[in-house]
Amino acid sequence: MVRGLLWILAAILLGGIVHLSTVLAMPRAAKQDAYSRLASLTPVNTMVPLAQPQTGAEIMPFMDPAFATAVCRYDLTGGSLKLTAPVSQAYTSVFYTRRSVAYYAINDRAAGRRTIELDLMTAAQHAQVPEDEEVTAADRLIIESPTTMGLIVLRALAPEPGLMSMARRTLAAATCGIQAAQ
To answer: Which of 31, 56, 107, 130 is 20 to 30 Å from 37 by CA-CA measure?
Structure first.
């Protein structure tokens, strides 16, 4: 009786380990992740508005039709990236991802301004930025990317279908590009 319970407990423990390791390995094993799907549609270091999702033909999984979406596929090997995104009237969010791992997010309320402006760079590039006593963290938002390549996904909510064109115009004004040497 005790021996049977130990076998059952061992089987449950082994099943849990296999399940957890499989879930953690899936993002790395996926061949058609968001970055790969967008590589053929978006040039590097350029903000590109995405088409509204059509049932069964979404560019990325789980796209919400109530949001206008724009993507910047970035590569930081040439320098740090400057992102400027106007804030829409309803809701705007910015996510930075690579291999389906979100490492930073900011929304319109956290931005506190009419425009979200930030510099995206690697830790090595951030270490080379000279310290300026006149510039505070509130003046210049610097985000460190854990990888040199990744995605910036902008989403603007259209609370009503008639406001989708306004949300799309807001995202069309967003820019991302390599900064000139300072």
So the answer is: 107
